[in-house]
Amino acid sequence: MQRLPVAVASLVLATLVSSCESSAPPADRPTPSPSSTIHDGGRVVIGVLGEPATLDPYSPVASDLTTALAEPVYPSLFHFAGSGRVVPDLAADLTVDGHHATITLRPAEWDDGTPITASDVVRSARRAGPRSGFGRLRAVRRVGRRRIEATADLGSRRRWERTLASGSLVVSRDASTHPLRTSGGPFRVAHVTPGLEVRYVRDPGWTGAPPHLTTLVVRFVDSEDIMLELLKRGRLDAAVVPSTVNLPDRVDASRFTIGRQHGSERIYLDFDGSRDDPSLRERVVGAIETKVLQQTFVRDAGVTVFRGNVAGNRSGGGSIQLAAPTGDELLGLLQRALQLQLSRAGFGVDLVTVDARTFYGPWERRDPMDVALRREVGPPITGATKVALFDVDSFVVADRRVHGVVPTGQSGGPFADVASWWRE
Fold first, then answer.
1. What's the CA gap between 183 and 161, in Å, rounded?
2. H helices within 46-165, ranges in order?
3. What residues pair up with 403 in beta bridges, in sequence order?
4. DSSP-assigned letter for residue 210
5. What are the pLDDT digits (tens) for 98-130?
6. Region 352-358: what's the mean pLDDT?
7. Distances from the Cα of 11 to the Cα of 14, 332, 399, angstroms
8. Percent of the chain surpassing pLDDT 90
9. In sequence order, what are the residues at sequence separation of 6 or more whose Cβ sits closer than 8 angstroms to the Cβ of residue 345?
10. Residue 382 pLDDT > 80, yes or no?
């Protein structure tokens, strides 16, 4: 933990401001036009920030990264293509009547030869949490071996399709005890090296269009600085980079393509750990000046969604712990800037950082800190203990010889269209 005096914190913020003056992210660059021939085979190594606490996407300690790592292995009823279009996956037919929908599955199998059935969909939907589109369903039931009925306040067929494409993975029966062991997607997991990587290979039993790559390696990286350095040295072919500062100045545009997914992440304050002080949320929110944070750090990589105390209550008092994950550059900058704003309002602020595996795992389930500064992908965050600050873009950087990795539109996640990736 660390506490900085206000004068020192002011100097820190001034330094941060000067370092971010050229932090506007690049305008979207289209994916390079592929050659006339798509090459099959090859290997791509892609970096992600941190390591998840679990590989089971519906575990209580699952994170956004858990869901992303499960996407190459588990199918969905629908999924996002790289262009942002929603295309059918397991769903052969969808009919909507008011708040009710009926979904019919196409014939499909797990890689052990057993069929993927309506029971698998219902079990997955009932295990799913709020990060998954399944979490928006009020009820789901099996009405046949390959038919499901669901109830939700979604309206149009298009909204049903997009919801069922958003992290709504259909997982195998053994997913809670042996996550990613049974595959129903384009890839299967060949090996997991804790603390380092997950290695995927083509699933020969996949009934869809076969993936172009033979092998996909997802490598866990401790910080964005290390991630960008590994890219420069050719140790990574691509990287999923959370919103950060000065990205165009740190990546060689002649070697790499930079793409972004607009507003795909939400940055928010979580007050779940402050159960013994119900008034803390109101007092902290009243001291936050999001306009300064937006102009200095977020800039045009996101928009403010903050709905704070319009009365401008600035009464502080007492000591609080403000936590953020290690390695996340933007959250680290925001954490220190929030310390300055809260100190001016009379708070004593201890800054706490912890590895992402803990922060988005056990600490998210039961937070020991008063306030946590988090980012999340998926449906808008809800709950009385959460205060949204910004919707921000996430970035994907890829070697120009690797195609399909950089999204050309909003997609469900960094690996949603992984079967179409290929390299020269």
1. 23
2. 64-70, 118-127, 157-164
3. 422
4. P
5. 999 999 999 999 999 999 999 999 999 999 988
6. 93
7. 5, 16, 38
8. 52
9. 283, 286, 287, 314, 315, 316
10. no
pLDDT averaged over the chain?
Answer: 85
Strands (E), 242-370: 256-270, 302-304, 319-325, 348-354
Please tell me the pTM assigned to this model: 0.83
Q: Are strands 215-221 and 43-49 parallel, antiparallel or unpaired?
A: parallel
The total number of residues shown for the chain amounts to 424
Which tokens go with 219?
Answer: 């490598």
What are the φ and ψ backbone dihedral angles of 70, each rounded to 5 degrees? -85, -20
201 or 260, greater pLDDT: 201
Distance (Å, whole) CA 312 – CA 263: 27
Q: What is the pLDDT of residue 316?
A: 64
Which residues on neighbouring strands pair with residue 218, listed in sequence order? Answer: 46, 198
Q: What secondary structure letter does DSSP report for 296?
A: I
| Locus of tokens 């069929």 | 115
Nearest residue to 330 (alpha-carbon basis) of 252, 402, 392: 392
Interval 189-225: pLDDT, tens? 999 999 999 999 999 888 878 999 999 999 999 988 8
Confidence of residue 412 (pLDDT cuts 50, 70, 90): low
Strand order in the sheet with 139-144: 91-97, 100-105, 147-151, 139-144
Angle between helices 329-344 and 6-19 (to 10 degrees): 140
Helix (H) or strand (E) holding 139: strand 139-144
The burial of 35, by beta-carbon neighbours within 10 Å (0-12 exposed, 13-18 middle, 19 or more buried), is given as exposed
Comparing CA positions, the residue from 309, 405, 340, 416 lying closest to residue 81 is 416
* DSSP conformation letters of 184-206: -SSEEEEEEETTTEEEEEE-TT-
Sign of torsion, CA 151 155 161 167? Answer: negative
d(CA 126, CA 148): 13
Alpha-carbon distance values, 186 to 56, 123, 166 (Å): 18, 21, 18
DSSP label at residue 136: G
